Amino acid sequence: MPLQNRVDPFGEIHANSSRGLFTGNRGVIHDPDTRTLLKRRWTTKAWIICDLVHPRGRKREVFGRNAPSGRAGWTELFFTDEVTALAAGHRPCFYCRREAAKRYATAFADAFGLAEPRVAEIDGRLHAERLASGANARELSESEVRSLPDGAMISLSEKPFALNRGKLLPWGFGGYAGTPSSCRSLPAPAFLITPATSVAVLRAGYRPVWHPSAP
């Protein structure tokens, strides 16, 4: 039985056996005795995206007791790819993905005209825009969908799609499956999933890691 630790583009957490390319966390949100999620879905505004392999080779027991004190430690969540994680409202970790985090911060600075953005400022903006923390999805016109940068995600009939080279890729926990469709003559109203801050960062040149199934 898979643990409830796979995050979809809307930021909701599911039990699914497919492996993801990245891990990450939102603080401590699990019970290590039952290895189940608590009712809360975050304990911090710093929702991060981490490498699957610890930079120092440390091993963790998923949903176990991984803090030096013997307590739970942060709760391991998993993402299909970085495109998914950005849509869910996470951003690169400055510890294990420092170069990616610096590129994200540089693009953030370019997008919002800041010299030296603070991490707390980035996290505060993202937290106000995350669907999973209570923000409302903004409806997009067809022309707005076509103008989105590669790596942004939208929903059509409550199903997530990623923008890539002018096409909409149907998302799934195992990757992108199905025939990519055009951004024209959309079959249903489109809503933005990726927080506006990360959309601006993508537009400013940040390039996320895609699942290999993306064409």
Portion of residues in beta strands equals 15-25%
Biggest β-sheet, characterized?
Answer: 7 strands, antiparallel
Residue-averaged pLDDT: 95
The tally of strands reads 15
Structural class: alpha+beta
- 3D shape: globular
User: What is the alpha-carbon Rg in Å?
Assistant: 17 Å
**SS summary, helix count:** 5
End-to-end Cα distance, whole Å, is: 31 Å
Give the helix level as a range of percent.
10-25%
Describe what you observe in this structure.
With 215 residues, this protein is an alpha+beta fold. The protein has two domains: 129 residues, no CATH class; 68 residues. Helices cover 21% and strands 22% of the residues. It is built from five helices and 15 strands. Strands 9, 10, 11, 12, 13, 14 and 15 form a seven-stranded antiparallel sheet that branches. Strands 2-1-7-3-6-8 form a six-stranded mixed sheet. Helix 2 packs across helix 5. The longest helix is centred in the middle third of the chain and has 15 residues. The radius of gyration is 17 Å and the shape is globular. The two termini are 31 Å apart. The mean pLDDT is 95.
